[in-house]
Every structure is written in structure tokens, then in C-alpha cells.
Design brief:
Layout lengths: L22 E3 L5 E3 H16 L4 H4 L9 H12 L13 E3 L6 E3 L9 E2 L1 H15 L18 E3 L4 E3 L1 H7 L11 E2 L22 E3 L4 E3 L1 H6 L7 E3 H21 L1 H70 L6 H9 L5 H23 L17 H8 L3 E2 L7 E2 L5 E2 L3 E6 L9 E8 L10 E5 L3 E4 L7 E10 L2 E2 L6 E4 L21 E3 L5 E4 L3 H8 L10 E4 L8 E8 L5 E8 L3 H5 L32 E6 L2 E3 L14 E3 L4 E6 L4 E6 L4 E7 L6 E8 L2 E5 L15
Parallel strand pairs: 12-20
Antiparallel strand pairs: 1-2, 1-5, 3-4, 6-7, 6-8, 9-10, 9-11, 13-15, 14-15, 15-18, 16-17, 16-19, 19-20, 19-21, 22-23, 23-34, 24-33, 25-30, 25-34, 26-27, 26-33, 27-28, 28-29, 30-31, 31-32
Helix pairs in contact: 9-10
């Protein structure tokens, strides 16, 4: 038998940190007090109304919501969940046990089961803890007597006399079930929270919870695998018993691990004290260096002050001598009283020179020393940065490197990094980023703690450049910062669509993947049949396909990849009123007369971009990007041919009537032209021969979470 007092840790609510009171079982199989669930939900709902303010998060002093839970509440409240949606609304609950957002379904807290088994164990623990504290009778007149029985049907406690009065012999109440004195009253039959009048009699093996027959017939468990309650009880009890027996049989091994952990605790204490002493010595050295520098700086200032004061004091004495009856003037006045010419001349010559110098200094007054000490200002800007970055460095912790190939900037930024040396050298990484702005002198880095080696960063401004860097931490030791990588965001918000498999789609020449994000043109048997019917030349049309969503206004950006083996691909936009003309156009043929960039002198080269074309397209193929022939384009044909980027982007500005074609890897515009945006604009693609186009997938947040088997 397990001692009741040894399981206190399992009886504490993760929210209020007290013994469970009416615990509810969450879908993640964690237990939380009924009152705590309500208070957390109130704080959760207030975060939507108050924008996640700090004042609304402190709705109850009883619960202690961790900062990570509040971060998840703020994140979900910022996601823009519509509260007045016509679709059934589900309730999200931030579980304090597993730190995950749990979906409570449409019924919310009313759809949760009360854990009566845990409640009974808590009651046993309370009785063992208070031992001598008696449970008083609920029906005695004051003073109440100590109860001897508790009726499970009446949910009350009685002394012997009151029990006989309220449960007379020969009545229905005499058949009530009674137990020893207790405060834990639970219903004799467990009812279904979905269908309150039905008792649970089955167990859903998919959701791992009891259900009633109505849940199985037409509820959310209709297609789930269920079993009888007795079978589930027997199976789970056997499994639990075997697992407990296994753990008990390994008691010696557990004790050995506990002994080892006790040694590790002591070793950790010793090592931490040693590390503290070493850190103190290091800082003492810094203090000594700073004290020496401080003393030297103060001595230099004091010496300079004394020299300057001495010079200024001498100058003061000299000017005081110019006053009447003082110093030099008084002495000269006494010399003037000399009547003997020879004696006067002997003394007056040298005195006249001194008088002339004093007169000149009086005309051009200048202090003998500067009063400011600007030369003695200590610049500690660099030292502050170094000390601010002061941390525990280790030669064994490798500097991470951000992979520009695996990193991606699209609707969000996906930053990936790796350590060239050890596989898992750091326990946690810190990713920092900031927007590049020439006007800002002081850079403010945004900081994110990451457990893995990649992170999705959202809420970035369009058409902006950002610098990213990362460093690793292993305990208190950190690696140096990685090299900064600069990535640029798209020039406009990302436009999401898939290929349209209905409007003009030619399934004989084109092949879509199931998700409709990739299209492939195969130069196969249908193309040979089309060529076989022609005796002169090879006139084969382009196969067009458009996006399933149009753009009516605003500025939008989308990206895609063209396979390197593609022979001919055209990309651009088409207005809705010209879609039919696009799919039936006779000009879209591979012929020397109609191919503008063919190199043949057929006269079409002088026509520049044909205004009669139903859509605005640029030509790609054979690993090249062809700039269309326009008046602004270079005259040399070779300068109009660029290497094909690994990822291309199109930016459509309906308000300005312009479309741009970008190198999406560097977000650099390769070509821009005017376009008629009078109608709804659709992304357009044309393929011929062996070619393939893949739409760029949006960056989505990936969480590394532990998923229970539910």
C-alpha cells in the first residue's frame, strides 16, 4: 500500500498550487480545479476585450498564470479570431499543466468530466492530514454533535440520533447508501456532460473518455471506435496494475537512481560554489583594472588642475601689479622720484621693458590656462557594449551559422541555422533581429528564445530589410553571435491562390498535383499528334492556366519556382474580361512570325510589346529570363537575357496600374511595366513542351510540442 502522505505532489492543482477542489479532466488528460478553469477562462476572455492588457490578466489572486501562458493568450487574441462567426465556436483553454492551448469544443467547461476518483483520493489525504479533526453533524441543534455517518444519497453527514430521525425504518430513505464521515459526496451514476439525462455506458477508444449511447448514435463520437464500460474498466485496470507492479519490482533501481541524483545534487552545489568563486575573481580583476584606470584618470585631472591654477594665479598677481601703488606700477612710481640721471637711466631701462610687456598684455588679454577639461572626458561607449555582452564563453560551444539556403522570407520569415561542429552543442538559442533604418542611430534588437534550430518570425513590415543573428546557450555558457544575415521582405502583402482546374484547363497537356500548387506540361504523345498533322513548320499553341482567385484592388505579391529543365514558360497577369480571348487566342503559337524574341527578322521585333495581347506576360525558359522588347528596354538583345532566378515573384499594384517581376530570393525587381487593371486581375501562366511551375508555399509556424496519444 502506498502511504497517502507520499502522493501530495499528485494532488496539487497546477493553477492554484493547492489541493484539488472539484477537479475537471481536460482533453489533454491533465486535471484542474473547477474554479481555476473558470477563472483562467475569464482571464482568457478578458484578453480579447482588453487587447491582452496586463490589468486584465490579473483577474483573480487565487490563480497564478505563468508568463508563457499569458504569452499564448496574447498570441491567440492577436490572431483575430471572430467571436460572432456563424460557424460553431470552440473554446481554447491554456492548460497550466502542459502549457498548450486545448480545444474544449462548443460546450466549453460544460463538456468536461469531473474526476471523482481523484476527488476521493484528495479527501482521503485531507482526512489523513487532519486526523483528529472531526466532521460535525449537519442537522444537530447547537452545539452540533460529531457525525458518525454520511449519506451519499442525501449528501449530508449525521450523528446516530439524527440519522435515525431522517432515515426512519421502513421508508425509502432507509435504503440510502451511507459511509463513514466524509465531505466528499459524488453521484452514484456518472452522467454524460453532452446529454445530461443519459448515463455513460461506453468508452471511446479514440478520444479516451466515457460516452453515452447518444454520443455514439449521432454525436461527435459517431464514427469512433467504442467499447463497453466494463471492458474498458477491466482492460485499463489490468494495464495500470501491470505498470504499477513493474515499477514496484524496479524499486531497487529507483533507489539507486535516487542515490545517484542525491550525489549529483551535492556535486552541483559544490560546482556552483566553485563557479561563483571563479566568477567573483574575474570580476575582482575587472574591478582592479577599473580602479587603476580611475585612479590614473583622477591623478591626471588633479595634476592638470594644479598646473592651470598655478598659471592663472601667477597671471592674477601680474595684473594686480598693474594697479596704482601696487607691484610693478608702484615700483615704477618710486623710480620716477629718482633725480640723479645716471642712476635713473640705469634702473629705468629694464623697468621700461617690463612696463611695455604689461601694456601689450593688457591690450590683448588672454587667460594663461583653459578652464574646461574636455580633453579628460572618458569615452566608455565601446566598453559599455563589451560589458553588456559579457557572458560565460566556452571553447566547446560552437558559433551557430544562419543558413541562407534554408532560410526563407515570404509572408513570414523562416530563419534556420546550424552548428558546424557538434550536433547539439547548445540547449537553447537566442534569435535577434531588427529592421534596417539609416535614420536610426541606436539599434534595438528584438529577442526570441528558441528551443530548436529554426524559428518563424511574423509581423514584419513589407518592402523592408531585416538583419538576423543567433547565438547558443548551454546553461550559463553562451557562444559568440553568428554572422548577421540580411533578408528583405516582399514589396507587398503575399497573395495566396492555387491553380484553377476548371477555367480553360487542358488536362491532356497539363497535369496538376492534388493540392493544385504545381502544374507540369509534358512534351508527350499529344504534342507529337499535333505536329504530325502539320506538313510545314511546327505551329503548336501554348497551354494556359490561371489562378483560382482574382484581385480587384490594392497591391499584392506572389512567388513561384520554374523547373530548370523547362523549355518555355510565360508568366504574368490577365484581366477577367480577356480570359476567354486568352484561351482562344491565335497569336499564342510557337512560330517565327509570332515569337517576338525568336531572333528572326520577321518584322515583329519592331512592334515592341503588342498592345493587342490579351494579357501581360514575360517569357522564361532554358534557364533564362527574357526582358520584353519595349522602348525602354536595352537595344542589345543579349542584355535583355538574364539568368533565371531560383524563385520568381510578381507584384501587382492595381491602384497604380503597374506589374513588376522580381527575383524573389533577393526581392530585386527585374522588369516593370504598365498594365490595365480595369477588371479583376488573375495570375496567368503558359507552358509549352517539357516545363513545370511550382507555387511558393506560405511560411507557417511550426511548434515542437509533445502530443499525447488522444
Amino acid at each position: 500500500k502506498v502511504a497517502i502522505k507520499g502522493i501530495e505532489r499528485e494532488l496539487i492543482c497546477p493553477a492554484c498550487k493547492e489541493l484539488f477542489t472539484h477537479p475537471l479532466i481536460l482533453p489533454c488528460q491533465h486535471n484542474v480545479c473547477h474554479k481555476c478553469v473558470k477563472e483562467i477562462l475569464f482571464a482568457f476572455e478578458d484578453s480579447f476585450a482588453d487587447g491582452g492588457s496586463e490589468s486584465s490578466n490579473q483577474s483573480s489572486p487565487r490563480i497564478r498564470i505563468s508568463s508563457s501562458s499569458m504569452d499564448r493568450i496574447d498570441r491567440i487574441s492577436r490572431s483575430g479570431r471572430k467571436r460572432n462567426s456563424l460557424t460553431p465556436r470552440s473554446t481554447l483553454f491554456p492548460c497550466p499543466g502542459c502549457q498548450r492551448d486545448i480545444d474544449l469544443g462548443e460546450r466549453g467547461i460544460n463538456g468536461l468530466f469531473r474526476n471523482f476518483t481523484l476527488e476521493t483520493i484528495v479527501e482521503r489525504y485531507r482526512q489523513a492530514a487532519r486526523a483528529a479533526i472531526a466532521i460535525m453533524c449537519d442537522f444537530c441543534k447547537p452545539p452540533p454533535q460529531e457525525s458518525t455517518k454520511s449519506c451519499m444519497d442525501c449528501s449530508a453527514s449525521y450523528c446516530n440520533e439524527c440519522f435515525k430521525i431522517h432515515h426512519p425504518w421502513g421508508t425509502a430513505k432507509a435504503q440510502h447508501e451511507y459511509v463513514g464521515p466524509t465531505t466528499n459526496f459524488r453521484p452514484k451514476v456518472l452522467m454524460c456532460p453532452e446529454h445530461e439525462m443519459e448515463r455513460v455506458n461506453m468508452y471511446c477508444e479514440i478520444c479516451r473518455r466515457p460516452v453515452c449511447h447518444l454520443c455514439k448514435l449521432g454525436g461527435c463520437h459517431a464514427n469512433h471506435r467504442v467499447t463497453t464500460m466494463s471492458t474498458a474498466y477491466k482492460t485499463l485496470k489490468e494495464k495500470l496494475s501491470k505498470d504499477i507492479e513493474y515499477l514496484i519490482s524496479k524499486e531497487s533501481q529507483v533507489k539507486a537512481h535516487i542515490t545517484q541524483l542525491d550525489l549529483l545534487l551535492k556535486e552541483t552545489e559544490c560546482n556552483s560554489e566553485r563557479a561563483k568563486a571563479e566568477a567573483s575573481q574575474s570580476f575582482e580583476k575587472l574591478y582592479n583594472v577599473l580602479e587603476e584606470k580611475k585612479s590614473a584618470a583622477l591623478r591626471a585631472i588633479e595634476t592638470s588642475k594644479n598646473i592651470r591654477l598655478e598659471k592663472l594665479q601667477t597671471q592674477v598677481e601680474e595684473y594686480q601689479g598693474l594697479l596704482e601703488n601696487n607691484g610693478l606700477v608702484g615700483y615704477a612710481q618710486e623710480v620716477l622720484k629718482e633725480t640723479d640721471p645716471s642712476c635713473f637711466v640705469q634702473t629705468a631701462k629694464q623697468l621700461h621693458v617690463r612696463i611695455q610687456k604689461a601694456t601689450e598684455s593688457l591690450k590683448s588679454f588672454r587667460p594663461a590656462a583653459e578652464t574646461t577639461f574636455e580633453d579628460f572626458v572618458v569615452d566608455i561607449t565601446k566598453q559599455e557594449d563589451i560589458l553588456g555582452d559579457l557572458s560565460f564563453h566556452s571553447n566547446g560551444l560552437e558559433m551557430p551559422e544562419i543558413s541562407e539556403e534554408q532560410s526563407k522570407m515570404y509572408n513570414k520569415a523562416l530563419i534556420s541555422w546550424d552548428c558546424p561542429g557538434k550536433a547539439d552543442s547548445a540547449d537553447i538559442y537566442v534569435l535577434e533581429y531588427h529592421k534596417l533604418n539609416r535614420d536610426e542611430e541606436n539599434v534595438t534588437w528584438q529577442k526570441i528564445d528558441v528551443c530548436g534550430k529554426s524559428r518563424v518570425v511574423s509581423d514584419l513590415d513589407d518592402d523592408s530589410s531585416y538583419a538576423f543573428r543567433v547565438r547558443g546557450y548551454k546553461g550559463s555558457i553562451c557562444s559568440p553571435w553568428s554572422r548577421e544575415v540580411i533578408l528583405r521582405t516582399p514589396p507587398a502583402p503575399v497573395f495566396s491562390f492555387v491553380f484553377d482546374d476548371k477555367c480553360g484547363y487542358n488536362n491532356e497537356h497539363l497535369q496538376l498535383n492534388p493540392r493544385r500548387t504545381s502544374v507540369e506540361s509534358r512534351a508527350g504523345f499529344p504534342l507529337l499528334l499535333g505536329s504530325e498533322r502539320l506538313q510545314v513548320g511546327c505551329y503548336t499553341t501554348l497551354d494556359y492556366i490561371i489562378g483560382d482567385t482574382g484581385i480587384a484592388k490594392g497591391k499584392h505579391f506572389w512567388a513561384f519556382r520554374v523547373e530548370a529543365y523547362s523549355y518555355l514558360v510565360k508568366v504574368g497577369v490577365v484581366p477577367s474580361n480577356k480570359i476567354q480571348k486568352l484561351f482562344h487566342s491565335t497569336h499564342d503559337v510557337t512560330s517565327p512570325r509570332y515569337e517576338q524574341d525568336s531572333g528572326h527578322d520577321s518584322g515583329s521585333e519592331d512592334a515592341f510589346f503588342d498592345s493587342s495581347q490579351p494579357c501581360t506576360l514575360v517569357t522564361l525558359g532554358m534557364k533564362k529570363f527574357f526582358i520584353p522588347t519595349t522602348p525602354a528596354a536595352p537595344k542589345d538583345p543579349a542584355s535583355r537575357i538574364l539568368p533565371l532566378p531560383s524563385c520568381l515573384g510578381i507584384c501587382l499594384d492595381c491602384d497604380r496600374g503597374r506589374v513588376g517581376f522580381y527575383d524573389a530570393g533577393r526581392m530585386k525587381c527585374l522588369y516593370e511595366c504598365e498594365v490595365d487593371c480595369s477588371g479583376i486581375m488573375y495570375p496567368a501562366f503558359a507552358l509549352m513542351g517539357g516545363a513545370a511551375v511550382h507555387l511558393e508555399e506560405a511560411v507557417t509556424a511550426k511548434y515542437r510540442e509533445y502530443h499525447d496519444d488522444i
